[in-house]
Please model this.
Amino acid sequence: MALDEYEKRDFKVVGKRMPRPDAIDKVTGRALYGADMHVPGMLVGKILRSPHAHARIKAIDTSAAEALEGVRAVVTGADFPDIAPGEARNVRDNTMARDKALYDGHAVAAVAATSAAIARKALKLIRVEYEILPHVTEISDAMKPDAPVVQEGFVQENVPEGFSENVISYHQYGHGDLDAGFAQADKVITRRFRTAATHQGYIEPHAALASFGADGTADLWVCTQGHYFVRQLCAEILQMDQAQLRVTASEIGGGFGGKTTCFIEPVALMLSKKAGAPVKLVMTRQEVFRASGPTVSSEIEVRMGMTKDGRITAAEAELHYQGGAFPNITVQFGAMAAFACYDLQAVQTRGYNVLTNRPKQAAYRAPGAPMAIYAVESVVDELCQEFDLDPLEVRLKNAARKGTRASYGPTYPDIGLVATLEAAQAHPHYSAPLGPNQARGVACGFWFNFGGDTSVSLSVDFDGSITVTEGNPDIGGSRVSIAMMAAEELGVPYESVRAVVTDTGSLGHNEVTDGSRVTFAVGLATIKAARAAKREMCRRAAKIWGIDEDAVVWEDGCAKPAGPNAGKFEPLSIKEIAAKSSRTGGPISGHHEVNAEGAGVSFGVHIADVEVDPETGHTKVVRYTVFQDAGKAVHPAYVEGQMQGGAAQGIGWALNEEYIYDEQGRLVNPGFLDYRIPVASDLPYIDAVILEIPNPGHPYGVRGVGETGIVPPLATLSNAVSRAIGRRMYELPMSPPRILKAIKGG
Amino acid sequence: MSKIHVKTRINGEAAEFLCEPDETLLEALRDRLHLTGTKEGCGSGDCGACSVTVNGRLVASCLMLAAEAEGAEIGTIEGLAKGAELDVLQRKFVEHAALQCGICTPGFLVASKALLEKNPDPTEEEVRYWLAGNLCRCTGYDKIIRAVLDAAAEMRRA
Model:
């Protein structure tokens, strides 16, 4: 791992609250999102979706729809070519069903027409003959040996026997002697937890505008977290060369992991190819809920032993996750993350991934971790109550630190959990008095963070201004952070730098905006690209001065003669070097391509005060504070924003949000009225306390900050509610009826 | 089915368009007039991203028929700034980092403007309840509430 990147320095730009370059466009309505693009001759696409949770598609008759005036193309699963097994094939089969409809909302046909009204009418003319099959939407039902099988052929070799074919993968982590560890405990408890599937709830529905040329090339405009990955998937699904498909990412109206893959893009491309015209396809909100990628639901059992002075002697967890009708690796992340906060001698996690007749899950902010850590942190809290110990003291006593062997394998370098816990302990919130029916909960959280494939090009324009070209959709202020890091490294004013997110045809590959990777990995590549540009500018200055290039240094945004030539020439600014660049060898750019390693793990601690109404079971969050290690907060306001936003999503997950299925396996709440995300009047101010324990893997010490914030709230709220009502809660969401039932001893 | 001819005023200027009888004001704004600053988040009046004013009143444009705009005075996000000069609310949203992805921002600004015109000195609670019809999934609302209160304070000083 590249853990020697960090160098301590005094920052001039990094750490300030600069105006972000896309802000004006976003407050004036000028910014163009997925559905905002119009092109000449554009058709409207619409998708027909299965009303059944599980059904064989015996026949599809599209003739009446095709005959309708204004209909230019109709597409079904039969239009897509055969491809090798793998994620692209899963995505193909999810975006358009082939032999079976696998969940309520699964696409079965699509049309492109000259107006939305004609497209809607055409959908009604498509006749699908279904043979309804037995379905299964709940984890424990799907695991039973005689359960209806959702899809065959996905079971991996290491899955233990005794389950249905829906149990497709098994993951195990840990070390040490569990029996010996539990024997040392003064108390061992085993508890079972359930969490409901939730949705990322981005406000912008998925949208794509595809234009297929007669020459076999295509353009795609799409709201996505990763247009290079969209290109990769679509090119494989449509069996074309990646270079023939140019994908441009629009401004993105939220994603949180839910826009890391394709749900409509291959269909838009196929419609355009068949129609010979551009096609815009936009999901309705109902389609977003039914047929994009919610998170997994879970059933988790945790066993933990503790001594009466608060030392955890051993712990194990078994995690069962369902993520819909296709494979995913979320339970693996859950099994890895479950005990990542603790320094344990004996620990084991076992994760099972289960197929059900639900939509194909997608990532949701720290995928797999929130539910696993909810279960673990709930058990820690219960043991703290058992021994009457302070919950932060107990966590400090067991906290992972530098040199700890993590439960998932690696040994931690410098990490920030102890500092974060100490900051929480010292904060006035932790000792503030509580009112009637109120209680305080705390919990820790963790996320791995990620680096990955990254390309950045940095151009020193002829007037000395700087263009940073990067390939990661800016989901919450990354352009400003990247421009700030370029300005810092070059020693130029922030205002002279512009960061641009470019299309797939204009820059090398970039991994999706995921894993909290952008400020870390794109930032790292930007700093290295700036260093390459500085080397080139020193070379040009040497040429201008007629001295050896080794005798030039870069300081304060200027090339300066050094060594024996020090002071002999006036320093040359970027402006001066840029103005002469055409005559000294041509345009000046720096670029850097890397598969970035060394993304530092990040920990958070949350404190919540809740007030539970004993009559209604309603929970009000009265005070909330987030503590999180950012490594180095490049733009503190947007780091706070990530911490606050993650907390708010976690609060929604804990208290309100859930996918609800009826007996026919149909989703009954596919809208914001019945799937209620927190609104402004549900929340207090969310105080954000940033800690900065530098990541040794980044030149400025940056860690990812986007995901960790959603991990602690589930247990923080559950611990607070459990203490407020005097009964332990074991299931999310803690909706008022469920809390009332617990109060009444149900 | 023939289209309906609608004459209206948008952001202080005369505007006209043809629409289907069942077309919403949101669709007419976005697809006929290409005023795409007004966003569709749900199409059912639950998210507030499509907020506009109709004769000064805050409306979810996805719940109003386009034909009903006949003779009305419509205000959209595109009319909030005066040329290059941002409205105080727009400036405060930028200063307070009150947006992340920005898709809900036009709706929040239009709704906040309507609030401050009615109530120039709202409490935090009043702002939270007024804006409870606008969903934001990125910010946890913290910086939005602060931006609106700060804008109100500056407007009172002016």
Chain A touches chain B through 59 residues (CB under 8 Å).
